[in-house]
UniProtKB/TrEMBL annotation:
Gene that produces this protein: fba_2
Lineage, top ranks: Bacteria, Bacillati, Bacillota, Clostridia, Lachnospirales
Protein name according to UniProt: Class II fructose-1,6-bisphosphate aldolase
Amino acid sequence: SLVPMKLLLDKALEGKFAYGAFNVHTTNEVKAAIEIHETFRSPVILQIIEFATGFIAGREDFLNATLEEKIEGIKIITEKVKEAAKKTDIPVVLHLDHGHDKELVKACIDEGFTSVMIDGSYLPFEENIALTKEIADYAHKKGVTVEGELGVLAGREDNANHSGSLYTDPNKVCEFFEKTGVDCLAISYGTSHGAAKGKDVVISKEIAIASYENMKFKNIKGSLVSHGSSTVPKYLVEGINKLDGKLKNAHGIPIEQVLEVVPYGIAKVNVGTDIRLAITRYIREYFKNNKNIDDNSRVGQIKKIIEDRPELIDERVYL
Ligand code: G3H
Ligand code: 13P
Ligand code: NA
Ligand code: ZN
């Protein structure tokens, strides 16, 4: 059944472990993610990034989808996840990842998402607090979990590309929790979004530990979230590039580093890029083996995107 994410976060916090949260972009990915979690007997956190909603709605130029089209995508995916959640015996969370548009975030809450992220991390501190609090108040009335973000991750994030990261200040974490009422908080501590995280990237364990210690001292019950945590497996990168992909500087976060910080209040670990890499490799293989694809079919549309804008597919999209 569908459950609020808070239920899982509390368990993870108590047991000092973390759940993986996986970005899914199509109904097939929803199915695959649920099946793999069933085999591990684990609850599943499915998360949807804003630009995937336009894609799900069938908009070819999905990066420029309108709010209405995005909401249409949200309705489609919520319906599919609700159906799937009825059929499986594992708890399912449907979470909006990196929500920026208030109206879109509220639509997710209204449609039945059990968790949303409101990402006000690019705003000045007080404005981030005001926006996040508004969403938290709205969501909590309906039993929906809320994630906020403090600090800016380098790399690609939704429609923006950030060259520099701004680490989270552990001394602002408690104030953020207290003033917004969020259930969990994404921190910037050395990870970044996308497949190019740096050759020898090192997570700042100190930021997680200091945030966690401050929270314990103030008796704050929330948890922390690790974004940008893909490991970027070599076999996928090589597989894509053998199929004419042009991935450069592809390096992920060594899993050991993530596992080392998990006991310090990190209850959720976000993975999106690894999924898109796996799917990209598959798509490239499919196109190589299937020459007669109807241009007007959905698959044909995607083929066109790959040919016209290969950087989109390899760096942040999927299908
Ligand atoms: O954080 C949101 C998206 O997952 C960004 O894409 O996984 O390539 O960073 P990414
Ligand atoms: P990756 O780019 O490491 O997969 O990060 C995903 C993420 O943080 C989604 O919010
Ligand atoms: Na951010
Ligand atoms: Zn993220």
